[in-house]
Amino acid sequence: MTIDTARFDFNDNSHRRYNPMIDSWVIVSPHRAKRPWLGQQETPSKPDVPEYDSKCYLCPGNERATGPRNPDYTSTYIFPNDYPAVKLNQPDYHSEKDKNSLEDRFFKVQSVKGNCFVICFSPKHNVTLPQMAHNDIVKIVDAWTELYLKLEKEAKEEHKPYKYLQIFENKGTAMGCSNLHPHGQAWCLNVVPYEVEREFKSFHGYESKYHSHMLKDYVVLELEKRDRIVIENDSFIVVVPYWAVWPFETMIVSKTQLASLKDFNEQQREDLASCMKQLTTKYDNLFETIFPYSMGLHQAPLNATAEEKENAWFHMHFYPPLLRSATVRKFLVGFELLGEPQRDLTAEQACERLRELDGNVHYLQHL
């Protein structure tokens, strides 16, 4: 069967898009957005929480679950996670398996050491990033940077086994957030996590083949096409990636190569905060709800070698699950678990919807 490519409609015909960052594919099925929805519906997030909650273990002055009491902090506050996913003080694992055995092939184990931190964005229990002042978001970026530098110094001077700092935020109960106080986390490991390592390998392969950084060329291309740019300032673009999996997935990418937060100047920290505030405001305005997402920073490892710095390019991923409304979310199930991911609207359609929204005035300000 032959296909008349002149009649192919990217907004109606199914197709696959390649993600060069992690060497994967996603099926795009824009025609499926027309189907009726009778599946699970989420409960919309409602902004009816107090500024201070005496039962919240993240609010200033409150006692945490394991006993320590928070100080009366007035800005961004970081403390070691009381229930860390990885531990610093534990024995190393030594395998006793025969190196040529089937058991060694299939039952591999590697020690993981590190530390985990909670990052309270604000002392106010009832705000989220889009509701915070720009200057307060700059303080979050500053706190991230200070933590990066602190752990890098500890790794170098105190020989702590720190290699990579993964900073992230899970926002909303739909993303498994167990406490609605505005906060993120940082996990510092003695290894580079798998998803980040996949990107680094792709970046290295692209550099070897084309003698240019992948994200440098991608930024140039997106600035030329302008079909997927949601927000732009002097330092960053916010783009719905051509290969996005989640319905309104976005990526903040630096226009010039910044290996990590410690390479930022004051203006770049200001510009990153501006992008974060505008983007999350647009998210909330899209369905007039406190929009859930998982977001995280990808950057150079701690105490990076010259090669690792050359390979790194600062960017942030935002993975929000909502699809059609404040109550209908995207699930990765069935074919998407067994075959490959699939989405029901194109990246360009998602960008157009986000781009037309106000990124400066939050919908709650109209209530």
Structure keywords:
367 residues, alpha+beta, HIT family, subunit A, nine-stranded antiparallel beta sheet, three-stranded mixed beta sheet, 8 helices, globular
Describe the structure.
By secondary structure, the protein is of the alpha+beta class. The protein is 27% helix and 17% strand. The chain has a single domain, classed as HIT-like (HIT family, subunit A), CATH 3.30.428. It has 8 helices and 12 strands. The strands form 2 sheets. It has a 9-stranded antiparallel β-sheet, sandwiched between helices. β7 and β8 form a beta hairpin. The model has no long low-confidence stretch (mean pLDDT 92). It catalyses: alpha-D-galactose 1-phosphate + UDP-alpha-D-glucose = alpha-D-glucose 1-phosphate + UDP-alpha-D-galactose. Pfam families: GalP_UDP_tr_C, GalP_UDP_transf.
